[in-house]
Design a protein that fits this description.
The chain contains eleven helices and six strands. The protein is globular.
Length: about 325
């Protein structure tokens, strides 16, 4: 299974063989990732964009495999490792309880987590039509305003115009129904245009990048955008379950394998890039807050349990309970 023959009494230490197995795993991961891209190219030049996306995702997967061993194994009392623990503690101590990650728009979450940190993957779980897109925009906009740094918002479900309308309604405190129907009161319309002009002309306004599904299909596309637009404070992905992986972009795969691979891709990105991800995922059915009796959301996760396993944190979004009708 490893492609390596072991003698009864090998002269080399076990780590030697483990290193060979890991290197072979990296090579096989890279080959498996490149193969679909080569197949796409063989079908004609029209597939060049998809082929490039596959190759970029293959590079990401190979790097993740290569770095896994060193990242996940340390000597606890090595001087360098121990010093890093002291440095982490002193950094938190000096903050005096302040947030040292990307802030949430809700104080309770900030009190518990101190924000979303640069190597973390968080999921917001919700049923259909429960406000996943609204919550994603609110979180991204809050980080953009408070940190005064660029953010990337990926919308896998909604179009960019729909996201833009919601973004403007939140940022400029517009009544959404009247805004989308073109029925703003004249004073509200004038105030919106004035405030928008200030933001647009301010040279210090950080980028707020929005990318649609047509541009972002795999984690490699997100890497490409963060390179193009420079370092961002965080990546926000609405409906992450609609993304693909390098293994499933050019061939069919089971639903479970697709989403398990996607969860691993999303997990590896913050660890490699130092950029946190907050993504939304869908419950497998309509879930009320009263259904979660033990605090375990994993049983309600749609498509793949690995989503929760790979996350650093999970948040549930629920509709408020309906009040009983009075007769």
């Amino acid at each position: 299974r490893t492609g390596i023959d072991f003698s009864e009494d090998p002269p080399e230490p076990f780590d030697y063989y483990l290193d060979r197995v890991l290197k072979r795993h990296v090579v096989n991961t890279f080959k498996d990732g490149l193969r679909p891209g080569i197949n796409l190219l063989s079908k004609g030049a029209d597939n060049i964009d998809d082929a490039i996306a596959v190759v970029e995702a293959a590079v990401f997967a190979a790097k993740a495999a290569r770095s896994a061993r060193d990242r996940d194994v340390v000597n606890a009392f090595d001087a360098k490792v121990a010093t890093s623990v002291i440095a982490d503690y002193e950094a938190v101590r000096d903050l005096g309880g302040a947030i040292d990650g990307v802030p949430w728009p809700w104080q309770l979450y900030n009190d518990v987590t101190r924000g979303i940190h640069k190597d973390e993957l968080w999921f917001m779980l919700a049923s259909k039509k429960t406000g996943k897109s609204w919550a994603t925009i609110i979180c991204a906009l809050h980080a953009w305003k408070t940190m005064k740094k660029p953010v990337l918002l990926v919308t896998e479900e909604m179009t960019i115009p729909k996201i833009m309308r919601r973004l403007h309604a939140i940022q400029f405190k517009l009544p959404y129904g009247k805004f989308v129907s073109g029925q703003l009161a004249k004073p509200d319309e004038d105030a919106w245009k004035r405030e928008l002009a200030v933001v647009v002309t301010d040279k210090d306004t950080p980028d707020f990048i929005i990318a649609a599904r047509q541009r972002v299909r795999t984690i490699a596309d997100i890497i490409d955008l963060t390179r193009k637009y420079g370092p961002v404070a965080a990546v926000y992905i609405d409906a992450a379950y609609l993304m693909d992986t390098v293994q499933t972009l050019a061939r069919s795969a089971s639903t479970h394998d697709r989403f398990a691979g996607l969860a691993r891709d999303l997990f590896d990105f913050p660890k490699q890039r130092g950029i946190p991800i907050l993504a939304t995922w869908q419950f497998n059915r309509q879930v009320r807050e009263s259904d979660v009796t033990d605090g375990d959301l994993s049983k309600f996760v749609g498509f793949a349990y690995e989503v929760v396993q790979n996350a650093d944190g999970v948040v549930g979004i629920f509709k408020p309970p309906r009040e009983p009708k009075r007769r």
